[in-house]
Write a sequence for this structure.
């Protein structure tokens, strides 16, 4: 799968990023994939490549580019629980500085960039994200109903902006929650807000999971939950971006 290293012009500078897509020419539906707070690293490249194998142009930006190029924070090969306090001591100021206004400004730039890429088909896009990146994906979808056809977020604080923030959501949506992140009561409140939006959605707790379950380089990883994530994400993209074209190249 080809991988391009990119620089995307934003209102505040240039965001480093990478894109991956099928090898063989053609133009493909685009997916904007927001990483978790640990950022671009081998596991994100692997996941983006896996998704691209199903026939998508996948763009992954460095969401903290204002603080430096990838890697913004040096990471161990495996992020154990013993590493988290020190890592989050460095990451939390970046997360707090990444306001909704900055997130939406960056989203404008990323979507504009996608429309101009020769390997992308120029049609509606999907946004997906993990942990903090799932909140960014949700904000992007709500702000761009004319461009975003699908939204997926995993172990993400998708309700952090309050239930009213989802009122204008129109994209086909899947939220996959970690069991350790929210209670059944909180899930019911979130799903009521989704009901009120009128969006076509699924929103569920993945059994037995903790925050970060998709990331194979962390202690939170759950292989069965990662597979469930693909089982939910791929049909959503197939339905919303490709008109139910059938299984993709990754099968």
């Amino acid at each position: 799968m080809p991988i391009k290293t990119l620089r995307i012009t934003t209102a505040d500078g240039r965001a480093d990023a990478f894109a991956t897509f099928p090898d063989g020419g053609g133009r493909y539906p685009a997916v904007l994939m927001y990483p978790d707070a640990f950022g671009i690293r081998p596991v994100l490249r692997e996941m983006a490549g896996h998704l691209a194998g199903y026939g998508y142009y996948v763009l992954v930006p460095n969401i903290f580019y204002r603080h430096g190029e990838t890697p913004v924070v040096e990471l161990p090969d495996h992020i154990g629980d013993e590493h988290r306090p020190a890592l989050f001591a460095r990451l939390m100021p970046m997360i707090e500085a990444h306001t909704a206004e900055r997130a939406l400004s960056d989203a404008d730039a990323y979507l504009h960039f996608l429309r101009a890429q020769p390997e992308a088909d120029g049609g509606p896009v999907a946004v997906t994200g993990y942990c903090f990146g799932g909140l960014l994906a949700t904000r992007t979808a709500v702000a761009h109903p004319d461009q975003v056809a699908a939204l997926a977020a995993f172990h993400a604080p998708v309700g952090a902006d309050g239930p009213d923030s989802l009122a204008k959501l129109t994209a086909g949506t899947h939220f996959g929650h970690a069991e350790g992140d929210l209670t059944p009561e909180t899930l019911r409140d979130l799903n009521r807000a989704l009901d009120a939006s009128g969006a076509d959605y699924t929103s569920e707790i993945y059994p037995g999971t903790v925050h970060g379950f998709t990331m194979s380089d962390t202690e939170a990883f759950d292989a069965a939950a990662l597979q469930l994530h693909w089982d939910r994400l791929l049909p959503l993209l197939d339905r919303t971006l490709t008109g139910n074209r059938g299984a993709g190249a990754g099968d």
Observations:
- The first strand starts at residue 3 and ends at 10.
- The longest helix spans residues 223-241.
- The radius of gyration is 17 Å.
